[in-house]
Amino acid sequence: MTADPKNTRVQSRLEKTARENDNLTVSYEVRAKIIREKTARLKALRLAKEAQAQTEEPPAKPSKRRHARRDK
After folding, report:
1. DSSP letter, residue 56
2. How confident is the model at residue 6 (pLDDT cuts 50, 70, 90)?
3. Is 0.85 topped by the overall pTM?
């Protein structure tokens, strides 16, 4: 039996698409991992900043001065 050229082309195209989709899946998983790591790092920084803010005294508010009105 001879191979049907049309069927071979379709099969080849399907295999190529499957390979590309595998690469996309890997790329997607890598990006998702990077985002999770970045989110965890930023969360840790935020929590550390909040903990430090709770232990420190709040900065003194500057006093408001009333400016004398100048008559024209």
Report:
1. S
2. confident
3. no
- CA–CA distance from 60 to each of 26, 43, 57, 63, 64 (Å)? 52, 28, 9, 9, 12
Burial 1-34 (b: 16+ CB within 10 A, else e): eeeeeeeeeeeeeeeeeeeeeeeeeeeeeeeeee
Lookup result for tokens 């900065």: 59
How far from 18 is each of 10, 21, 29, 32, 50, CA to CA, in Å? 12, 5, 16, 21, 47
- Nearest Cα to 16, choosing from 27, 28, 5, 8? 8
- Helix, strand and coil content of the chain, in percent to the nearest 5, comes to 70, 0, 30
